[in-house]
Amino acid sequence: MDRMSALDSGFYFAESENTPMHVGSVAVFEGPAPTYGDVVRLLLSKLPLVPRYRQRVRQVPLQLGRPMWVDDPHFQILYHVRHTAVPSPGSDEQLRNLAGRVLGQRLDTAKPLWELWLVEGLAEGRWAIISKVHHCMVDGVAGTDLMQLMFDLSPDATHDEPRDWTPRRDPSGVALVAGAVTEAVTQPLRTLTSLPTVGSAVRSAKSMAGSGRTLAQTLPSLAKQAVTPTARSLNGPIGPHRRWAWTAGNFDEFKEVRTALGGTVNDVVLTAITGGFRDLLKARGELSSEKLVVRSMVPVSVRSENQKGTLDNRVSAVFVDLPVGDPDPVSRLQTVRGQMDEYKKAMQAVDVPSIISMGDFVAPSLLSLGVRAAVQAGQMWCQAVTTNVPGPRVPLYVLGRRMCTAHAYVPIAGGTRCSIGIFSYLSTMTFGINADFDAFPDVDVLSGGIRRGIEELLEHARAEKGTADVEQPAGAVPARKKKAAAR
């Protein structure tokens, strides 16, 4: 048996009728499509690498402990691997509509929390895989690590034959309660005994003082967020249906903007998304002020190198104000960059994994009630979720077929009606937009606006480069870069 972490338990308890809490993706491949049997055999050969895919969730009676992962004695892979098609020659729009329906449906919590759909019939002989994995099972970064489950680095890769598997005995209710009571006593003690000694605390006093100063410097900006006008029309109740759209950019485009205007690739990505939300609100007649922002929760991984490949969630989050009211794209980039730089300092100053582990002190029944209440009540603090998952920069193959592109799916919950999953593969960066069906009939305006935001930044970057090449002597620093350096 393996007990869920407090954070994973939160994702599990957040699930409700209108709030599926799985992450997912749509990967498109060159043809011809493999047979359903070949896909099933491939997965069976890979499952020993990820035992979690044969495990289901068992809740402890009376919620005296966090849920457990136990082997599913009735595991049947044919239930988890599905086969479908779109009318040939299927378009991207038909694939998006199909994926929106598939990804909008909840996983069966009585079984291992994943599904995979083989989709045939796409134009140009292509085919696709739609995958779903519950958020309590794996976060985005670990999910990228788990591509080894079925992806190969060579089209000529060979695979082992499927092996027989015998599930471990399903624990009784009494055993679950006994284990929960034992852990309720020992876990807080283990956490407390792992705290630094007096000697080590004294030696780190200077470091702590520096961290305190960094945190104090971030407080004014956090307080400013509380009074900044946000696009609250983007918040509200979430229904059972989803709209899904996507757009894409070339990685070189983002690097070109970064080189000319400063910041990081992630800063440029967030600024392009800002342009998308600006177009959306402008089309709705809701661009009310130049100070208006769309506040986005941006998950950040706190997984260290020695935790790579572990099957739980190690994430924290920051809240970034996307300056949708600002008409100047370059100014928007500088605003986003300033916030992200500030958060980086704060994240270095705080021991985030220790804060996350404090969830181990929360009584599981209270954790369940608290998470469900927060999700059902909704919130007005942020209007979007934006998560950037770095993917491989080398070609991937499934059964000898090369993957052309991939799009990420991020769940929505708690009154936040829109999420954007960014996924990079080879030279492409894709934006998968998941939105509430009723609240976002204009989701295509957002996806088109993100693409326009990329082009807008490119235009300014190339103008900046042209000005620097023509008007400034060799070795001079462009004016905008001087301004950025002074920030």
Write a structural description.
Pathway: Glycerolipid metabolism; triacylglycerol biosynthesis; Lipid metabolism. Residues 313-457 form the O-acyltransferase WSD1 C-terminal domain. Belongs to the long-chain O-acyltransferase family. One of its GO terms (cellular component) is plasma membrane. Residues 4-269 form the O-acyltransferase WSD1-like N-terminal domain. With 487 residues, the protein is α+β, with helices and mostly antiparallel strands. The chain folds into 2 domains: 2-165 and 173-181, Chloramphenicol acetyltransferase-like domain (Chloramphenicol Acetyltransferase, 2-Layer Sandwich), CATH 3.30.559; 225-486, Nonribosomal peptide synthetase, condensation domain (Chloramphenicol Acetyltransferase, 2-Layer Sandwich). The chain is 41% helix and 21% strand. It contains 15 helices and 15 strands. The chain has helices at 6-13, 36-46, 77-80, 92-103, 140-145, 173-193, 198-203, 205-227, 251-261, 265-283, 329-349, 352-357, 364-377, 443-471, 479-486, and strands at 2-3, 22-29, 55-58, 68-71, 81-90, 114-122, 127-134, 242-250, 294-301, 315-322, 384-389, 397-398, 401-409, 418-425, 428-436. The strands form 3 sheets. The protein has a 6-stranded mixed β-sheet with strand order 5-6-7-2-13-12, with helices on both faces. The chain has a 6-stranded mixed β-sheet with strand order 8-15-14-11-9-10, with helices on both faces. It has a 3-stranded antiparallel β-sheet with strand order 1-4-3, with no helix packed on it. A hairpin with a 4-residue loop joins strand 6 and strand 7 (127-134). The protein is globular.
